[in-house]
Give the backbone structure.
Amino acid sequence: MDLKLSGKKALVTGSSKGIGEAIVRKLALEGAVVVVHGRDEALAEQVAADIIMRGGSAYVVVGDLTDEDEVRRLVDSAEKLAGPIDILINNAGGSGGVKETWKDTQPASWARAYDRNVLAALRVTTRLLPNMQAAQWGRVINISSLAATMPPPTAPDYSACKAAINAMTASMAKAVAGDGVTVNAVSPGTIHSSTLEARFREVAHEHGVASKGAPWEEIERAVLPMFAQVPVGRVGRLDEIAAAVAFLASPIAGYITGINLRIDGGLSPVL
């Protein structure tokens, strides 16, 4: 299917690795001019160089999305390099690497998490949204998490931030629906990554259900039920997240707005 993304300009925040990298690569494959963003310039340059080597068009911007001045600079740079941005994927954020519990969570942690996830997306979006409205075409896609609707007992700050992202998505979608701009959220469930695979292999070894060197399919089958009861019976893949985002970013998804698309193998019971 032709997603009709050829020539569209897309900025994907946090796209030097992980989900963001998969998304920016997919958009480039579909013909979009992409802007790779990260805080590590070398990593971002590697991604962009590989996209270009494969025949795509890519540029790089770097900057801390918790800093207003840096956001202003990187957005200006993105539009100078690629042209007016049609598609914004707010992917940057994350847990920050510390998983607090209700026994030790602190207000300061929540403030940092909110800045890193919600306000970062807000800073970039508010700089790009007016031009999308003026052009009567645009796409904003916020990468949320299943933790927003199925929060675990740990990392409450992260779950709360992703719930805020979902609310922000719904509100914004209503505000710009008449301007040719759609706003949607995508909530990945358990998705394969090098970190997840390493953890699964450790657990398999600890519980004696498979050796650390066993094929991934064997590890996945044995360990996944210890983490989550996923009806599909496997973890998701990065390319599956990227494909869904590319569809929502495309002109053919113009009547879809304000949704939270859960990509979780049927794990969430929420209708």
Observations:
- The radius of gyration is 19 Å.
- The first strand starts at residue 9 and ends at 12.
- The chain has a mean pLDDT of 96.
